[in-house]
Specification:
The chain is α+β, with helices and mostly antiparallel strands and 209 residues long. The chain has two domains: 4-82, Glutaredoxin; 91-191, Glutathione S-transferase Yfyf (Class Pi), Chain A, domain 2. It is 52% helix and 9% strand. It has a four-stranded mixed sheet, with helices on one face. Strand 1, helix 1 (14-24) and strand 2 form a beta-alpha-beta unit. Helix 1 (14-24) packs parallel to helix 3 (67-77). The longest helix has 24 residues, at 91-114.
């Protein structure tokens, strides 16, 4: 049994963590949940994450939730993978900005567009902006490439990149040439290919359960 266990539903937000684990190159186990069967709402899993969401990661007896937090933790816990920016490096602030940009800015902006309110929220009441403005900012960042921090691929690219891939695939974010190029670069990474192949196999396994 590996020290790392991913509670995973395929495909879902936990696919972000699956990719992150492949980038690490560390052994890990997968505890597969079927969202269609409601496994995430059963007592055993609610004891892991009371919100009934994935991903959750168990490491050395501690459970961590939220994809960006898990990625930040893993990048620091396994620095040999060079997916983080160490304390003392001034780029660490930029790294954290982009690492948490997706759950705190991009995803809420996507949700606002996909599930509009009767009246738009006041800009002073929310921590994000209109989706077009948000994606303009992200596109400008990835266009400078090849990665968010230049030549170094980091956990920030895993988290934000996965959401750009997902959002583009399901037409949830506007098309940008910079996104297509960024997605192509990500898709060529061996870890991304392995994660995609595992996700596909796990998805088929979940359908049979």
């Amino acid at each position: 049994m590996a020290d790392l266990t991913l509670y995973h539903a395929s495909p879902s937000r936990s696919s972000v963590t699956l990719w992150m684990l492949e980038e690490l190159g560390q052994p890990y186990d997968v505890h597969l949940l079927s969202l269609a069967n409601g496994d995430q709402l059963k007592r055993d899993y609610l004891a892991v994450n009371p919100l009934g969401k994935v991903p959750a990661l168990r490491h050395k007896g501690v459970v961590i939730t939220e994809a960006a937090a898990i990625s930040a933790y893993l990048a620091d816990e396994f620095p040999q993978a060079k997916l983080n920016v160490p304390v003392g490096d001034p780029r660490r602030g930029l790294y954290f900005k982009w690492l948490f940009f997706s759950p705190s800015v991009l995803e809420p902006a996507i949700a606002d567009r996909a599930f509009p309110r009767k009246e738009p929220a006041r800009a002073t009441a929310i921590g994000w902006r209109d989706l077009d403005q948000v994606t303009d900012v992200v596109a400008a960042a990835v266009a400078q490439g090849p990665w968010l921090l230049g030549e170094q691929f980091t956990a920030a690219d895993v988290v934000l990149g996965a959401n750009i891939r997902f959002g583009t695939m399901f037409k949830l974010i506007p098309d940008r040439p910079a996104f297509a190029a960024y997605i192509k670069r990500m898709s060529e990474r061996p870890a991304a290919k392995r994660a995609d192949a595992k996700d596909k196999a796990l998805s088929e396994s979940a359908k049979k359960s």
